[in-house]
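ok here's N-acetylgalactosaminide beta-1,3-galactosyltransferase:
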Amino acid sequence: MPSLPKFFSNLSSTITLQIVSGIVFLFCTLYLAFSIRHPLTFNKIIVGINFKRWQTNGSTNNDITKLLTGNETNVMIHSSNLSSESFICDYDKNNDTHQQTNIVFKNHRLNALRPYCDIVPTPRNTWISAKQYVESDIVFIIYTGASFYQNRAIAIRDSWLSRVTHKYFFSSIPYSPLPITVIEGAGENYMSNMKKLYQGMQIAYQKHKETAKFYFLAGCDTFVNVPHLLKRLDYFNHTEALVIGGNPFVHSCYRQKNQVVQTISYPSGGAGFFLSAAMMEMMYPKLDSFFQNHWPTEKVPYSDVALNCLAYSLGVQPSFVPGFWAFTPEQTLNNQGRLKLHSDSEPNTFHYVPPKSMYILDEFYVFQHVDRLANDNNLNELVKFTRQFVAAHYELLRIKTAECTLPPVKST
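and the structure:
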């Protein structure tokens, strides 16, 4: 039988343990009640800038789970207090407190990316996605040449075009690092673009006529902001015969090689333009006859003029919309002025963009897009875009691994 002092000692320990357990239980209960009434917040996923914290509702954890598992149906993030920070345009190297950042990127951020803040429009929030069509509804047709494979064509493959589902490079010479579709006998001079384009259109139409909503035509030195571009289609219907572009020029149309039949306004081919599925269906049976019997290719080797004249002969005139620029951002600012360039805050395309600038411009607009989604607290679109970007990035790494050979390591 235990002694009386030992009994009271055990009883005291038991009572103490019960008191501590009761306090812990009470604390957890109060914490749970408080957290339900006042949900926890979490930081925006942006490094290097003092973004405001996201204010979220109580269902945020469930929403994130749905997003990460791919179930994004009807997921909404309710928040307020939109921010207006810019990772590039607000950057000041002298006030950068993130010393762990790579010094090479700091210089690139300041000297290569930041100058665009003074050239192009820089919206910081209030992103509205395209309402009618998604990227995979569009077939992107790029005409190029062998002399551009390792510079211009590779640059667009590695930048904006890497995030495109249906894409074609049409040329006359195969090249395995690029998805070249060979147009036999097209040649490699400027006039070759004519045959590359109209025969390429026939190939693309045959493959995608059941699913494509629009076809977008451009050269290999055209920068395209695809999220902006898609929004231009919000008020159009792919079942109608349409040519959609911008930055109009004027040129004559011909019949039987030398008869001028009409002078038309047409959208700049350098800036790129759309043909609707219905327009392609109308053009398809006419392409060979028009280019072989009517269009004076040697005299007028301009494929954008020719296609718009074909559309005109079929009773279709182009629809002009903002945001298609026929020159680089720098040239457009010099030629058109800030007021005109900034009259539309979401440019679709720029033309004559050199390979190095293609990478920089794409990087600038990727950061801008991420900023806008973060500032809007638009987690749905931010996760969707991040997934797309990461998938494209690693696909490019797989391509680069296959096409690049490192120099041998010298033995000591």
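+1. The chain has 13 helices and eleven strands.
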